[in-house]
Amino acid sequence: MRSIWKGAIAFGLVNVPVKLYSATEESSLSLEMLDKNDHANIKYKRVNANTGKEVEYKDIVKGYNVDGKYVILEESDFKAASPEKTQTIMIDNFVDEEMVDTIYYESPYYLEPEKSASHAYALLAETMKKTKKVGIATVVLRNKEHLAVLKPYGKTLVLNIIRFAEEIRDTESLNIPTTTKVKPQEIEMAIALMEHMAHEFDIKEFKDTYASELMKLIKAKAKGKAPRIIPAKKVETRTHDLMEQLKSSLKASRKKAA
Predict the structure, then answer these.
(1) What integer pLDDT is reported at residue 233 of this predicted model?
(2) CA angle at residue 83 from 81 to 89, to 5 degrees?
(3) Domain boundaries, the chain
(4) Where are any strands of DSSP class E within the chain?
(5) Is residue 209 left, alpha or beta, with left meaning phi > 0 and alpha meaning psi from -120 to 50?
């Protein structure tokens, strides 16, 4: 893997030099955009809005419009704005992991210690494991400040970028019923169904089957075969009575497990 950032984790007066790596990769198929007439690749060009001519990447700069005039920013300016935040994963405090709602999580990164920091790295990881705490930190990546959760993952430290509170949309515009009353018997039956469906979670049991099914279709079409369309299975509901639906679901679940 190739590191995408170098800096240090800072907590208290302890500094842990690290490298940052992306922890994920796409499992979806890499599809290309084509002209439907001759299947030629669609190319994107960076063009000058005034001349319409293509601009080479080396000649492109970044700027911010201030009163109609652009202030041009160099790469050094982004670091100069806050040298500490661009080079440091600054841990602000430690909290219980469940205090951070999953809606805030965005993307994970692996952290690898520099050779000189292996002891401090291990100390931080082991301490968080024993205390069952995660670090809430801030860092600047790709010229943007991020809030993050630092946590151990096996022997590795993972930096999970999370969203700021203002980035989460309000739910008030959604039409969520607030006057609906759920019957105690319905809750009891739903609990029974959930308990019967409850199992130990093993993420390795879940695979991206859609990508493989799509690849089968692509290979079939490549051989000139028409894809066989199988209608999606519909959940048959014989009654609109919620209690009856729950009872039928529980019965089917038990039959499946037998």
Answers:
(1) 63
(2) 120
(3) 5-30+58-166, 184-257
(4) 5-11, 14-22, 62-66, 69-73, 88-96, 105-113, 133-141, 144-153, 156-162
(5) alpha
Distance from C-alpha of 250 to C-alpha of 51, rounded to nearest angstrom:
68
In sequence order, what are the residues at sequence separation of 6 or more whose Cβ sits closer than 8 angstroms to the Cβ of residue 40?
34
pTM check: above 0.85: no
Kindly state the tokens that stand for 106.
């965005």
* CA-atom Rg of the chain in angstroms: 26
Phi, psi (rounded to 5 degrees) for 26: -70, 140
**136 Cβ contact list (under 8 Å, min separation 6):** 91, 92, 93, 94, 95, 100, 147, 148, 149, 150
Residues linked to residue 109 through DSSP beta bridges, in sequence order: 22, 159
Closest CA to 137 of 159, 114, 154, 107: 159
Tokens, residue 253: 């679940």
Q: With contact defined as beta carbons under 8 Å apart, do 183 and 244 qualify?
A: no
| pLDDT beyond 80 at 234 | no
* pLDDT surpasses 80 at 231: no
Give me the count of residues in the chain: 258
Query: Which CATH code is given to the segment(s) 5-30+58-166?
Result: 2.40.290.10
Structural tokens at position 71: 């202030």
